[in-house]
Amino acid sequence: MSDIQSQDERELQDGQGSADVSADASVQDGTSAETSAQTQQEAAQPGDAAQSGEFDENSATLNEMYDHLRHSVDSAELDAFASRPLPDPKDAAAFSRATALLEAVAGNLHTSVATRVALARDMKFPNILVKLSEDPDPTVRAAVAANEEDKNWLVGRLTKDPEVFVREAALRNKQTSWKMRMEGAEDPQIGAQTLDFLARMGTEEGFSGPAVLAAMVRRAVALNPSASEETVQRLAQDGVPDVSHAAQQRLAQ
Fold first, then answer.
1. For the whole model, what pTM was predicted?
2. What DSSP designation does 154 have?
3. What pLDDT, in 10s, does the model give residues 83-96?
4. How is residue 107 annotated by DSSP?
5. What pLDDT does 54 receive?
6. Which of 19-33, 77-91, 162-176, 213-227 has the lowest mean pLDDT?
7. What b-and-e string marks burial along 3-17, b requiring 16 or more CB atoms within 10 Å of the CB?
């Protein structure tokens, strides 16, 4: 009898132990489920601008804002940013930030071509013009080439552009070096109008450049097969003998 009672007590204790373990497991499972739900709820919270898909320009650092504009695919946002008036240059920090961010806009191909052309035409900041001088659209590069705020080395680089009309725009820029003008005057791909422009170098009233170099450019135009007959005839009357002889030789051919 005593043995049966002991066995019953052991079974009862075992049952209670299993129940306790099951209860503990249930508590733990409940806690895990609660924690998981809480984690999911927190993940669903917006939290910050990056998580919500929004961007707070006012709280962004310069690097964050630059990165945002550089990789934005929102053309309307980029065009709107480019059209903002620049801060007063007296506010050096704001002005420097604005021009730095315009470089990001200029380098983003989601910025419309029209806006990139406008920046290339109107800007005078080297960092922006250099960025736009590498634009895949030649109309943008041509606008840079014509911008007289360019550094002469940048214009010189654009006189080597694959597109003729970009090279021609650079050759008409007053910042172009005489070396680049000479090479342009010898280039048979350059159009007759641009060659006529080069053929007038040094003959304008008030010209103050090196007369010898200007005459060398005119002579090169006279020998260029793409120069128009009208241009060559005018050069045949040039006051510098080397120029007029070259033009007369060309007309005699």
1. 0.76
2. H
3. 999 999 999 999 99
4. T
5. 61
6. 19-33
7. eeeeeeeeeeeeeee
Provide the residue type at 110 as one letter: H
Residues 183 and 194: beta-carbon distance below 8 Å: no
- At residue 229, does pLDDT exceed 90? yes
3-state helix, strand, coil in the chain (%, to 5): 70, 0, 30
Q: Count Cβ atoms within 10 A of the Cβ of residue 2 and give its class: 0-12 exposed, 13-18 middle, 19 or more buried.
A: exposed
Whole-number Å distance between alpha carbons of 179 and 114 = 32
Task: Give Cβ neighbours of residue 165 (< 8 Å, ≥ 6 apart).
Answer: 138, 142
Q: What is the mean pLDDT of residues 220-231?
A: 97
SS3 for 167-223 is HHHHHCCCCCCHHHHHHHHHCCCCCHHHHHHHHCCCCCCCCCCCHHHHHHHHHHHHH
Of all helices (H) and strands (E), which one includes residue 243? helix 241-252
**Paired tokens of 124:** 């005078």
**Between the CA of residue 202 and those of 57, 107, 156, 209, what are the distances in Å?**
52, 38, 20, 7
How far is residue 185's CA from residue 218's CA, in Å, rounded to a whole number? 8
